[in-house]
Queue: 4 jobs
Job 1
Amino acid sequence: METTRRQVARAALLVMSAFAVSRALGFVRQIVFGLYFGTGPEMDAYVAALRVPDALFLVVAGGALGSAFIPTFSGRLAQGDEAGAWRLASAISNLLLTILVPLSLLSIGLAPWLV
């Protein structure tokens, strides 16, 4: 039982750390782009183009994964169903890829009109 709790805590810490690193790197990216582009039409175009993928990330990573996937995954691990937990993780990863890749490609194709 203690081993399962440690696994759940480690998994939660890993997800939380990855999310924090992602946001920190995004902040660094904004600083670098701000230094490079300054305040002008190029930076405005970049910020406008970034809104769609950033919103998708926040909805998927912050909303869906945080409120649905993590408790379900942790619950399966806590019940000792490690194989089921990893099948769930695989299924969610595949689903996200099949949805987000086409949405990203669509956003790229529609970028001139979205900006």
Job 2
Amino acid sequence: MKSGKAHVLAIFTALFLILPAAPVLSSDSILTMATTTSTDNTGLLDYLAPEFKKSTGIRLRWVAVGTGKALALGRNCDVSILFVHAPGAEKEFIEKGYGVSRRKIMYNRFILVGPKHDPAGIENMDALPALKAISKKKAIFVSRGDNSGTHKKELSIWKAAGLEVPEKEDWYIQAGQGMLASLNLAAERSGYTLVDGGTYIKYQSNLKGEPPLVILSDRGSSLLNQYSVIAINPERCEKVKHEAALTFIRWVASAEAQALISNFRLLGQGLFTPNADY
């Protein structure tokens, strides 16, 4: 007959063999992303991440910075995937071998906002003549000035309007900060600024009463704001979670996730229009 200790040991051994093992969360189940401030500020990623986890078992962790800094994090192999909105810079990133599997996901539009009294008279103008009017009036304009996707778009519009970026002018203020901070600075200075439509709705939702900045110009093809995801090239960055990145790309471009993006609203307004070809 077995001794008492031996008998207890046998029971525990049997239980160990028949009970399912407790799930072990490996580092492969966490996907690190660098993204633009607008996907974070609006709450879109807080909304999508639990659904992604539910569908795939992968937890999404992200850092929200300007697109320029996000691309730098990708080049440095600090993240496994990007969710950004500067198509020209993204294509260069891929051409240089840093990224793969770029996929369009959604878009919204940039808008020019400013004080209600509109000192430069840009209301209902297309973006290009609106910037010309601001420049002629020397009205206060707040630039992100941070190499973000929004900043890159602003610089491209000045160029498309046939104007030099007025970096040395007193009326042109470079905030060097995120979009919400830049909007607050523009409001303080009764100035104009360029903002994506989703972040402007978020800005409105944070206010009590009428916003000090109103939409004055939302016309022109130059204001399209396309968002895409890019996996970091595993041949350059061996430690990235490439399969997890591809899983996110497939998921966020799926009919399920595209419907979630379409249904994401603040103040009763949609912030992004899905446009992945799933």
Job 3
Amino acid sequence: MSVGLEAAATKTPARGYFKNPWRKPRVLQGVTIGYLLWSLLPVVIAVIFSFNDGRSRIVWQGFSLRWWTADPFDSILHDPIMQAAIVQTYRLAILVVLITVPIGTLFAIAVDRWHGRPARGANFVMLLSFVVPEIILGTSLFILFTTLLTVVNLGTPAQTLGLAVFQVSYPAVIVRARLLTIGPEYEEAAMDLGATPSQSIRRILLPLISPAILASVALVFADVVDDFVTVNALSGPASSETIAQKIYSASRASPTPEINAAATVMLITTLTIVGVGLLLYRRLNRGQRSSGASDLMQL
């Protein structure tokens, strides 16, 4: 009898734990930690092996900067092919940002003020790139540029236009979300105080949506740096290949840790751009409402 009571007493805390709605979500925490380890551990290992002294990417042979700067032929500092790929990657990212962020911002403002079926149709077409698989989009653009728009050569021109087709959706969505949060009150107040529509946009609206524009720049730049499918489908000569293409091509042969170093460059660039964008976004987001109010008082 006493044994049964002791067994029941030992089971009670466990049952009480699962019945308690305010218990700590230990299972959820475990799943989250496991997912982070599963996702980040291979990346950390790849970064570590970029400093391997030997040519192996699986056997550690000592710490060295051979594949970064020391090797006179195969390091990313001295390899002209890898340097050209890095330059091409950043060139595409800058060009796409310069094209998509202004267009996406203007589109967001237009859709925010333009109501009706045409506006909903334009918004649907813009958002369609989020659901269309990138391989289909890249293949369709390849057929377009090689059969109809033959004036656009494969390589940098086709890659830039192809990436801009779906990257424009990011600033449009981000800026429009910002517009929905601030509402039209500031612009209406500015025009009530005598400002023209252009003045209200320049001195009130643009400062208020500048954090969203900055976030769009960071997101588009980072996404273009990491893109492979569209860039590969629209690539032309070897000079138009990016770091992602070089990594993919080398991984199918017998790669050296130089590929790990190139991938680390991509990772550092992406994290830096996103981190700086996030910090500036928070700083601007904190000060823009007070700045907009002060500008409003000066009108």
Job 4
Amino acid sequence: MSLSRVIDEKHLVVCCGSGGVGKTTTAAALALEAARRGRRVLVLTIDPARRLANSLGMEELDNVQRTVEQSRFARAGLDVKGELNALMLDPKATFDDLIRRLAPDEATSRRVLANRVYHLITTALAGTLEYTAVEKLYDLHRQGIYDLIVLDTPPTKNALDFLNAPGKLIGFLDDRILRWFVPEGGTDGQLHHRLAQRTGLMVWKVLGRVFGESFVTELGEFFSSISGMTGAFRTRATEIDRLLRSADTAFVVVTSGDAAVIDDALYFYGKLVDHRMPFAGFIVNRLSPDGGPIDREGLDREMGQLFGSLTRKDVIDLVAKLEEGYGVLRRASAAERRTIDRLREATGRTGFVVRVPQFASDVFDIPGLALTATYMFGEGNLLAREA
């Protein structure tokens, strides 16, 4: 399947890869192209640097989706037949909204939201960002408002956290674990006694000194309150996992031509295969221009005409320096082509490989996103293939 078919036919596109390879820009460019073709699109980012907001001409983004005004496209000379929306994930707000929806009553919701243990889990626990990203994704998917949702994920180093997020939640809410903390028919006092026995008096004293004597009680209150929601959490986690693996989803790995970054991309590709996720292809950003052969005599003649005051030796020296620079570009381009060949060989030529060149400046506005999309979907991108 080509990249063009992905944005025309899929409901969810997940952009993943290393940090610093233009992943957020890529996600926004894909979303813009889909909107240009008439689809109602949402691009969801976790990037706190506000690159997406800036590139779309917005002052800020938050946990509520915002529509890019058609006038912004018109000023950029673009005819966008569909609609482009954007959202920046707020993990804490996403988790709070989830608790409010799943709590059996308002009193339980208030207890959980006010609990210090809950605050710690939603602000400092490893994997929270990844879980809330897929949770927000699932919630938006269920709303059925958008034809396409494009997700900009955390960098590759958190790949396993992202892919395993639904399963980790199920494990965390395992009944055997909850029974350890929440004795059936027990009271908070009984729980305090059980925890003191199991963790040992010394550990209990340390916890009391560090967090205050009410910490274990709050821990018990948290698990007692959350226990009534475990069924709903498990159901959602299972459905999220099913969504990520469905035929309506496509994972696109974003990388650059650098050999070390290609290694990272291949690592992520391997994890997608291991988890049986629907891999679609690679987008290789920031490639060096392919400096073709130089017409030395013609360049020498043109330089002489352009700089008539220069001596013959000056022109020859200048041409030699230009030729040397071109040589550097040719060698860099050849090295990048070899690394791209590794992508094609590793995937068995089953996914697309799309190339995007290095631009003179960073992409920071809608025209820049449109230019990026032009290279992604241009007919001259010979490495884009149909399956």
